[in-house]
User: What shape does this take?
Amino acid sequence: MTESYDLIVIGSGPGGYRAAEQASLTGLSVLLVEREGLGGVCLNRGCIPTKCLLNASKHFSHGKKAGAFGVHFDNPRFVLSEAMAWKDRTVKTLSRGVESIMKRTGVTVLKGEAVVPERGFVVVEGREYRANTIILAGGSAPWIPPIPGAEAPMVKTSREILSLRSLPEEMVIIGGGVIGIEFASFFSAVGTRVHVVEMADEICPMMDREIARTLRSSMEEVTFHLSSKVTNIEKGRVVYVSDGKESAVSADLVLMSVGRKPNIAGIDIPGLDIGSEGIRVNNRMATNLPGVYAIGDITGRSLLAHSAYRMAEVAVSSITGGKSIMRYGAVPWAVYTDPEAAGCGMTVEEALRQGRKARTAKVRMAVNGRFLAENTPESPGVCIIVSDEATGVLLGVHMLGPYSSEIIHSASVMIEAELTLKEIGEIIFPHPTVSEVLRDAVLEATHSYKE
Assistant: This one.
């Protein structure tokens, strides 16, 4: 017997469960299918567990430096098993929260592997389900490049590394993107000797170049091998080539973090437009087929949990007759290293590539009262803004320093609203807060315009 629903959502990550919740609240009958844990990769194997571990390492690191503030600890210790237990409790609590939301909003949750052989038709563990509309929200998985030795037991992805039982003495992280840099920050802070091997000439390509360079320089305990390509992984070492020369670094653990691929296995809908990066969608999250939508990482458009949340809202709006569209120009990002980095909008390089006359302004966080009160003098911190020279409209904000991830959403609002520097300069910021550095950068830019 085939069960019927108004909407079937495949995948319960941030996009999937938000779409199921929002759709159910509009009165649609909704089936949410998840093959593993509610909350998807973000909650179970990504955003949340990594932040738990990074927070633990920051407590440890800051505790060792607390003497500068008159606070002294004797022999601080980091215990991995206890940090992992904290991570597991947090994940379990939040997963139960998602489960509660689904129950409260009347969403039917089904555990199992979904196969979608045609539009409006889903098979889960041999049972058939039909719906007028389907949202594909299967997320993504780590991509493993065809490097000899990549299948060795010492090689882990971001999934397996979250279940380590002991800290490695020395490790190599292949890939200097967000995931690789966050794990480099964690492991180096708790005593592991860390090497990062990155093909590009700088880490984190989405960052402002100065921010990326400063972040890398601040991670003094990490050895970076830039413009380097891994050619082989052997027992106890990683071989790479840089400037035509072959070198090797020793390791008892390798983290593979070179990118992610969309989870499209089981999606066999005839005619569905799937590109190299994922399922193609328009700005209303609709695919090329009527009644089929895709959101989150599976689209390859913006691999961020908060992007998936918004994509879900736009998809449900489209399904229920609304007019919301997905905009990508002011999506903020954050890297939860120590120190944090965050950004939104264009870098100056991006603005120039678009043919804009861009102007930048930079303010060091050391001039900020709260930053100076809470950080040692050598702590890095900077805010860089990019504006349109002709109009004064804010185009981008890029930050390095504490609380950056908690400040950057205000930059997103400013960029989305196309506020000018003059208009931002009239906003009252609370004092003393690190957020004031954003206003200071705007005033610096405004002053340079007058000159």
